[in-house]
Amino acid sequence: MIIHGDVPSGYTVKAEGDIKIFGMVHVTTIIGMKDEKIQGENTRMERKQPISHPYLGKVIDKRK
Q1: For residue range 1-59, what is the model confidence (pLDDT) as tens digits?
Q2: Is residue 51 part of a domain?
Q3: Domain limits at 45?
Q4: DSSP letter at 12?
C-alpha cells in the first residue's frame, strides 16, 4: 500500500502487505501483517498486531 499525502491524527491505516507513506503522519495507528515493512517520512506512528477488518488497504477515519 502506498499513500501519497498526509494522514491526520485519529486515522488508522490497515494493509495486508508493505506500507509506504509519502507525507506527514501524526499519531496514526498502522496495522499490517507481521512481516511487513512500514516506511514513512516525517512520521509518528503506533504499530499494532494485525486484526481482521473488511477495509484492509484503506485509511479509516476513527475520529467519530
Answers
A1: 777 777 777 777 777 777 777 777 765 666 665 545 555 544 444 444 443 344 444 55
A2: yes
A3: 2-59
A4: E
Give SS3 for 38: strand
Answer whether residue 64 is part of any domain. Answer: no
Q: What's the CA gap between 2 and 32, in Å, rounded?
A: 13
> 37 lies in a domain?
yes
What CA–CA distance (Å, rounded) separates 53 from 21?
Answer: 20
- Inside any domain, residue 26: yes
pTM of the model: 0.43
- Say which DSSP state 50 is in: -
Residue 32's CB: how many other CB atoms inside 10 A?
Answer: 22
